[in-house]
Structure formats: structure tokens, C-alpha cells
Amino acid sequence: MNHATPTKLLQKLRTRRCSPRQRKPGDAPGALVFEGAQRVDEILIEATDYGPQHLEEETISRFEDCRRFLGRENPTWLHVTGVHDVEKISEAGQIFEIPKLLLEDLLNTEGRAKVELFEDSLFVQIKVLEMAQNGKELEFQQLSIFMGPQTLISFCEGPTRVFDPIFRRLKNAQGRLRQRGLDYLLWALLDTVVDHAVLSLSLLERNLVEIDKIIQEDHTAITASELYAQKHEIMSIQQQIRPNRELIHTLRHAPPELLSADLASFFDELRDHSVLLSDECDALRDYAASIRDYLLAEMNQRMNNVMKVLTCISTIFLPLTFLAGVYGMNFREMPELTVPWAYPLLWAIFLGVAVFLIVLFRRKKWL
């Protein structure tokens, strides 16, 4: 029976961890070196300048063309796809005054989730977990967000559909997104990331439920190594999303100059969702472990049953072998050998002993 096993995510995470490190020991702080896998050929910039009665969208290939958005009164969102080009990322840092240490974190796609607060800007780095287009695999990529006075720049390793609902909300001018500033957009981006992570975990849950059903029907259809891979994958996901709670807590207590005070309740709810997400990972990990324990117990029980049957068979043939060995000895003076009914009597003893032992074992429920 075929079942969805999203082990490719685990393979990708292992491959990325084992990839050769490009940064040399002893490099100066702020040395820009890309660490990760290139997911796109060219960097793509989607610029969205918006307001209550204004929306301007444009696709740009050079950061130099983004200078015209500087100094505008309306908020501007620049969504960047691709972070592999060090020269272009460095150019973006110069144009938007992003510190080199933050650019260094941005280029390291294996970095831990973090948040940095400054006087008039902030930097957020978080992992995005989403379903692949086939709906049977999970994918991870890093999202880095730099929010300045009137510009928010989001950097993704590769294409993603996670933020499509936000683009649609901006186009339709529905809700608060067009009415609020960049701090609300930041919350919307993080909320979408957390929601997609919860949705993605449902794939693992469905997969574990299906594996559980398969084991109930035939425990030989699934191996313990497959369940171990499932458990290890969940642990890897939990390791990636565990810092989200601390990250959101830090943003919740950011100064009002960076994030409006009325967004506190929104970040409180987002923090609660992050806690639930972490608890869901714990539950799925325990579920995978319990299924694996059940499978191993079933395998041990089956082995015990086989050994019990073989032991009973050996026990039945042990006295028969003894009798056959006695009368198979080459002694001349054996009185029973000259009696005509000795051979049938010996067979009757054989059958009687076997039947007696079988009945005894059945009464004791050993067979």
C-alpha cells in the first residue's frame, strides 16, 4: 500500500547541513559569503507601494531601480526572491542602509531564527515551512525581513506561495492591510508563516494516522526505520521552529517607535499560535514514537509466538526421540524386539505422548 512519506525534507536538511562550508575560519565580521543552496537563477524583486487609496506594483530586477521608493510617504514592500548573489545583496545593503552584520546573517541560510531591534529599524529572520506543489512533501526556506522607516524588505531563498494571500489583500484593499503601516505588514507576514507551518504539520499528522492504520492491518507493511525517519523529521522541524516563540516575544515588547502599541494583542495571539505549534510538534513526535514502540512490540510478540510454537514442537518430539533412540540401539538382548505386538505398541506410545502433550499445551494456552 502506497502512503505519503515526506522524507525528502529530512534528506534536504541533512544535505544542507553536510554541504561544504564556504566561509573561511578567521574571516572578518561582516564578510559577505553566501551559505546555502541556490534556488533561482536571477534575483527577482516585487515592489508594492501602497496606501488607503493608492497601490503601485512593479517587478524589478535591479536594486538600483528601487531608489525611487526611498523618501515616499506611503509604505513600500519589496519582496526579494533569491539571496545567492552576494554583489546584489551588498548593493541592497548600501541603498537601504542595512548593516553588514545583518547581511551576513541574511546570506547564511542555515542560521538560527533571530530578531534585532535598532532605533528606527528592525531585522527578523525566521524559517518558512510550507507544502510543496504536489501536496505530499514539505519544504523549508529562510525568510529575512528588514523594516526601515517607510520600507520593508523581505528576502526569500526561492519562490514561495506563502505570501500570495497578502498580495491579494493588498490588491483588493480589504481589511486593515492597506490602512495600516509597515508594522502591521510585518505582523501579517509572520502570522502567515506560522499559519502555514500549522497547515504543513497536518500533512505529517495525516501521514502518521495512515501509517497507524496500515500497521493495525499488517504490521509487516511498515519498517521501524521508516517510523524512525518520521520521528527524526518531526524533531528536525521542531528544531527549526522552536525559536519562533522567543522571536515573537521580543517583537511583542519592541518600543512603540518601531511597532505600534495597538499591535500588542496581535503579537500575543501570534505567540500563542507559536506555542501551539511547538506543542503540536511534541504531540506528533510522541505519536510517532508510540507507533514505533507498538510496531516493535508487535514484532517481538510475533517472534515470541514463533519461538513458542517451535519450543512446543521440540518438546513434543523430545520424548519420541528418546524412545526411538533407545530402541534404535544395536543391542542383541532386547526382549521387546521378539514380541509381535511391540512395534504397534511403540507407535501407540508415540501417538499417546504426542496427543497428551498437545492437549496439555492447549489447556495452558501455550498453543
Task: Describe the overall structure.
The N terminus is likely disordered. β5 and β6 form a beta hairpin. The protein has 367 residues and is an alpha+beta fold. α5 runs parallel beside α8, α6 runs antiparallel to α8 and α7 runs antiparallel to α8. The two termini are 32 Å apart. The relative contact order is 0.10. The chain has a seven-stranded mixed beta sheet, sandwiched between helices. It has two domains: 290 residues, Beta Polymerase, domain 2, CATH 3.30.460.20; 60 residues, Up-down Bundle (Methane Monooxygenase Hydroxylase, Chain G, domain 1).
| CATH hierarchy, class of the largest domain | Alpha Beta
Query: Over the alpha carbons, how many angstroms does the gyration radius reach?
Result: 34 Å
Looking at CATH, which topology of the largest domain would you report?
A: Beta Polymerase, domain 2
How many discrete domains?
Answer: 2
What is the strand arrangement across the widest sheet? 2-1-3-7-6-5-4
Spans where pLDDT lies below 50 across 5 or more residues: 1-6
Short synopsis of the structure:
The chain is α+β, with helices and mostly antiparallel strands and 367 residues long.
List keywords for this structure.
51% helix; 9 helices; alpha+beta; disordered N terminus; Methane Monooxygenase Hydroxylase, Chain G, domain 1; Beta Polymerase, domain 2
Task: Please describe the topology of this protein.
Elements (H helix, E strand, L loop, with lengths): L7 H11 L25 E8 L2 E7 L15 E6 L4 H11 L3 H8 L6 E4 L4 E10 L6 E10 L3 E6 L7 H9 L9 H36 L6 H18 L2 H9 L11 H63 L15 H22 L4
Helix pairs in contact: 5-8, 6-8, 7-8, 8-9
